Amino acid sequence: MGLLNGRLLAAGILAAGTGFMAAPAAAEAAKCGTNDTITVAQMSWFSGGVMAFVTKKILEEGYGCKVQLQPGDTVPTASTMLTRGRPDIAPEMWISLIPDVWERIEKSGKYFVAGQLYTNGGILGWWVPAYVAKEHPQLKSISDLKDNWKLFVDPGQPNKGRLYNGPPGWGGSVVTANLFKALDLGKTFELFSAGSGANLQAAIARKVAQKQAIVTFYWEPTAVISRYNLVRLDTPPYDAQEYACLSQTDCADPQVTGWQTTRIDIAVATPLKQSAPALVDFLSKMQIPNEAMNKVLAWGDSNHASLQDTAEYFFKTYPQVWTQWMPAKAVEAIKKSLK
Questions:
Q1: Cα separation of 47 and 42, whole Å?
Q2: Of all residues in the chain, what percent carry a pLDDT higher than 90?
Q3: Are both 2-121+262-337 and 123-246 of the same fold?
Q4: What is the pTM of this model?
């Protein structure tokens, strides 16, 4: 997942390309506040892409705006924000992964954070299938792995358990490797790199299909957590200083600490405060429970649905969530537009 290696790639930022023009908005829509085309970041990962289409539909159908999607990722999108003032809206911006770049953006005055997209933020950690947690109640936290390594033995290496890590370059992979050292798991576990995000998901799917045990690094909101019913192992409380070391590849003395909850924010171009205050008000209220997004993404993944169809599923399945974000006129316009 490209968004997890933001700090590591900050030096190699590239500008993203442009998207496509939106269809005319419904006549019943509320007022947009601007005649300019509003650009929205369509991030490369699943939830980021779905949220781009959710935002696009609300702006078009609910407020009568002209919208253009702009393909991006955490680092290149941050770059174009700083250098070009585009896109106007990034509905799923993992700001905690690019602290240095975001600090420059904020100091420039070009953008502000309208709100946090997910109720619980981005949750990272080590996960096991729910059936493993149920069958082995002694396994509650990451510290319990050392005494329960035999549950996770891989046939290819019967003398050690296997802890699945993300591919090299992911920020979460770096933290996992350092936690592995801090817990002194090397005597009883192999730290196994999946090589790619797709390989990691495939390994989880295979183990769950066979009702086998697996312990793996992952995060939410994602389709994987809900589709494969994974539960997160407990950790000690989060310590900012210790975590700062864990996030560095050259951490000399890693110590066990809890994972940092990652900010996932809605970044908005400052000029919209003046030209389209109604849109800023909507964006400040746009928040989704993590569990709801996990289920939406799981539906999209299971049905091989497009980003647009997954966004439509969200609107149809969770009206109790999105109807709270905007006035009744915009709500009705969106409801009329659903397939």
A1: 10
A2: 78
A3: yes
A4: 0.80
Could you tell me the two tokens for 109? 């005055």
Q: Give 55-68 pLDDT, tens digit per residue.
A: 999 999 999 999 99
The strand pairing partners of 21, in sequence order, are 68
Contact 114, 268 (CB under 8 A): yes
Please check whether residue 299 is in contact with residue 224, taking contact to mean a CB–CB distance below 8 angstroms: no
Which residue spans within 263-336 are E strands per DSSP?
265-269
What is the residue extent of each domain of the chain? 2-121+262-337, 123-246
Sign of the alpha-carbon torsion through 182, 235, 127, 147: positive
Query: Which residue type, as a one-letter code, is found at position 198?
Result: A
Predicted pLDDT of residue 7? 37
163 forms beta bridges with 191, 215
What is the C-alpha separation between 52 and 40, in angstroms, rounded?
6
Helices (H), 210-239: 223-227
Alpha helix ranges (H) inside the chain? 6-9, 46-57, 63, 74-84, 99-108, 130-135, 171-182, 197-209, 223-227, 240-246, 272-275, 277-285, 290-302, 307-317, 319-322, 328-337
One-letter amino acid for residue 180 of the chain:
F
CATH topology of domain 2-121+262-337: D-Maltodextrin-Binding Protein; domain 2 (3.40.190)
User: Residues 177, 189: contact at Cβ < 8 Å?
Assistant: no
Record the tokens describing residue 74, joined without a space.
């955490």
123-246 is a CATH 3.40.50.1100 domain: no
